[in-house]
Amino acid sequence: MPKPTTRLLAALELLQTHASISGRALSERLAVDERTVRRYIATLEDLGIPITAERGRHGSYSLVAGFKLPPMLFNDDEALALAVGLLAARNLGLSSAAPAVASAQAKLSRVLPKALQKRLAAIDQTVSLGLSRPAAPGNDAALTVLSLAASERTRVRLRYLDSDGGETVRDLDPYGLARRQGRWYAVGHCHLRRDLRSFRLDRIVAALPLQTTFERPADFDTQGALARSIASLPRAHQVVVHLDTTLDLARKSLFAAFGVLEALGPHAGQGVRLRVEADDLAWVARELVRLPFGFRIVEPKPLRRLVEAQAKAALKSAKRLS
Question: What confidence score (pLDDT) does residue 14 get?
């Protein structure tokens, strides 16, 4: 640390990260003698930073309890992380995100060096993260309550609106939260349905933390559970297809929310069973035709004709190119 100013700021950082630190430890970390450490402490006190000093052979220094001065010292990589993080936050579907991002950027601009300010602005102006925009704003208050409850393993009472606008009251053990297809969801055990369920945050009217605690399943996959939950929502058509492949390849070939996959045993002829809930059978047919392996449609029968039509159209296009 060649510059005294750099050492002074490093001393402040050490005081903030340690409840108490000795003069000898400070001198070793800063590579200066203990007399210089005492001079740095005096300078910090002159700047209005309250420091308590314990005298004696094992004396130490500490900041007055409750005092925190957030250091705004960032290297290039940290500045890049901040810029991309702020950019992502603006597109996450939270109603308070835009003003919060603007406020954070303004504060950073006041304290960052000119070179880092320029890099922060460049990221904001030129980088696009490709995050889908939400169809409806999220519920910031519910996100805060549910994320804390999931972290502390405490139950939450929800007032929730269904797709028809009807309101129900239910207790939820929130296992995790996730964002998918532009919307925020909470996933966990619903005590009203006595099963794993997902809940859109924009449909939550209120979320009240309770005192009851719960145990979260080990290695719970929030995104995977959400995908299965969305895929199994009741639709106009129930589709069952047998895929001539392995479960691993089926998962790689189909996006998670398309349907529910189940490996078939030797008595069922091997392969994978795919169950899909869909409102548009033509869409299902298009997805099936592009698969890199064979399949057999169990139900419904109209889907077979749609797949044949898709296959004929693809073959006609291929002949036209040759």
Answer: 85
The answer, yes or no, to whether residue 183 has pLDDT greater than 70, is yes
**Which amino acid would we find at residue 216?**
R
Contact 275, 259 (CB under 8 A): yes
pLDDT band at 2 (very low <50, low <70, confident <90, very high): very low
Q: What is the pTM of this model?
A: 0.60
In terms of domains, do 219 and 267 share one? no
Q: Residue 10 in contact with residue 30, Cβ under 8 Å?
A: yes
Report the number of distinct structural domains present in the chain: 4
For residues 144 and 173, what is the distance between their CA atoms, to the nearest angstrom? 15
> What confidence score (pLDDT) does residue 117 get?
78
Q: At what angle do helices 76-89 and 97-111 cross, to 10 degrees?
A: 160
| 135 part of a folded domain | no
- Asked if residue 203 is part of any domain, the answer here is yes
Owning domain of residue 184: 140-229
Strand partners, 273: 242, 262
Inter-axis angle of helices 34-46 and 4-17, nearest 10: 80
Mean pLDDT of the chain: 84
CA atoms within 13 A on the CB side of 99: 2
